[in-house]
Amino acid sequence: MNLNSPVETISFEGHTLFLKRDDLIHPDFSGNKARKFYYFLQNDFPDVKKIVSYGSAQSNAMYSLSVLAKMKGWEFEYTVDHVADYLRDNPHGNYKGALDNGMHIFVGRGVPSPIKDVLHIEEGGRQKEAEYGIRLLAKEIIDWQKENNIEELNIFLPSGTGTTALFLQKAFVGEGTPRHTVFTSPCVGDAVYLKKQFLELEKDEKQHPAILTLEKKHHFGKLYKENYKIWLKLQQETGVVFDLLYDPLGWRTLLSHPEVLTKPILYIHQGGVLGNESMLPRYERKYGV
Ligand SMILES: *Cc1c(COP(=O)(O)O)cnc(C)c1O
């Protein structure tokens, strides 16, 4: 595991930015899910024999949990509401990867209640233990900042549950110098939903990240021409493949707030590229290659 992930300098649309490559942590266990689940990888759980979780049939968290279970020699049971016929008949992306790792999938059953030898993981890894790995991310950023004499840094990452952004901002509170402000944008719900998520994990609003939004409403997982366009352009201009669910919206939101770009800015690449196997063919069918 390459946990101290590299920071690269990239140029995009006339801006120079830093990019934290958490997508390169490990070929299978990467991005913010690796950070969130690192606690479970690092510590011993002699009683645990199985991970139980739930969520969508294409989620990055599901795939990462299948990798974690494999690394630990645990079973992995995952509950979904629904698997699309096409996906069931043609497994690909995160779904195929997780099945190949031995995931047992259950459609439409209730989520079993906690018992002793089972590790329960909330949807998307939204839980307290995530703080452990995200603190390490904060420490890597602080060390890099000091090495490069960057006194003040803006950090941007797109949010789903908001867990990563929240714990990252929290880890910086009380650090003094160098200084950092975490900015994020909602991808799954709206800003009100994201704020609620933050409040469930941390009551003190001074420790919350700043939320940036786009004017237009956005539905998670739907196809938008603007998202596809910026994803292609990112690849052309930076040579980096980003995720198709969160990053396009994240970049569009960030670029529409030039005031955030007046200070040195670090964008966090949170992985999720395996999920593109399902999104990319849909985009290509709709808008061409
Ligand atoms: C899970 C995920 C997110 C959202 O992370 P949260 O901690 O739930 O906000 C963003 N980007 C990628 C690539 C992800 O896999």
Mind explaining what this structure looks like?
By secondary structure, this protein is α/β, with parallel strands linked by helices. The protein has two domains: 7-28 and 128-287, 3-Layer(aba) Sandwich (Rossmann fold); 38-120, Rossmann fold. The chain has helices spanning 31-42, 60-72, 85-89, 93-100, 130-147, 163-172, 191-201, 225-238, 247-255, 276-287; strands at residues 7-12, 15-21, 50-54, 75-80, 104-107, 118-121, 152-159, 179-186, 210-211, 265-269. The strands form two sheets. It has a six-stranded mixed sheet with strand order 1-2-10-7-8-9, sandwiched between helices. Strand 1 (7-12) and strand 2 (15-21) form a beta hairpin. Helix 1 (31-42) packs parallel to helix 2, helix 2 (60-72) packs parallel to helix 4 (93-100) and helix 5 crosses helix 6 (163-172). The model has no long low-confidence stretch (mean pLDDT 94). The structure holds pyridoxal-5'-phosphate. Pyridoxal-5'-phosphate binds at residues 31-33, 60, 124, 158-165, 243, 246, 270-272.
